[in-house]
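Q: My labmate handed me this sequence with no annotations at all. I'd like to see what the chain might look like in three dimensions before we decide whether it's worth expressing. Could you predict it?
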Amino acid sequence: MKELSPQEITQLLQSWRGGERGALEQLIPLIYGELHQLAHRYMRQERPGHLCQTTALVNEVYLRLVEARRIRWQDRAHFFAMSAKLMRRILVEYARTSQSLKRGGQAEYVEQ
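A: Here is what I predict for the chain of 112 residues:
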């Protein structure tokens, strides 16, 4: 597969935002590897035995980005900066949820 320039990736991002389905199909194979590397760097900073896996983190970021139609992509760097921010949020949400469950977060409130 031909490697695209940052400008070409920016154009695909903008076309995708504009609703062009083919742009997203072209973009996914180009960005997946970089997203996976980014997620791998974040996962290395997590504690050993973390239940969330790199691929699951990439998939969650992808799903959230697909739903975010209002983002006006400035360029490739903006896309990866937003992806990194989402990865951090997902990992924080995961940590909060696991801490909540550890502290009785699933307990139901019973009125007396």
